[in-house]
Design goal:
two-stranded antiparallel ribbon, 70 residues, mainly beta, Rubrerythrin, domain 2, 30% strand, Putative regulatory protein, FmdB family, 1 helix, Regulatory_FmdB_Zinc_ribbon
Length: 70
């Protein structure tokens, strides 16, 4: 089941909403109760290509082209 991110047009609150398959994507703001919410572009679950650097940070691996130029 997808989780969508929304922003309320009235109060500006950003929140996540779980949407059941086959349902219309309509969200009600948990802060002010209005249903005038805009669906945001989600960041997704993407990690950069590289070597873990600890505490969630990443040290990027040098690219193959850069190695061959040295």
């Amino acid at each position: 089941m997808p989780i969508y991110e929304f922003k309320c047009d009235k109060c500006g609150k950003e929140f996540d909403e779980l949407v059941m398959p086959g349902k219309d994507i309509k969200a009600v703001c948990p802060e002010c109760g209005k249903n005038e919410c805009e669906k945001l572009l989600s960041k997704g679950n993407v990690r950069p290509h590289g070597i873990p650097k600890g505490k969630g940070g990443y040290k990027l691996s040098p690219c193959h082209e850069c190695k061959s130029q040295k």
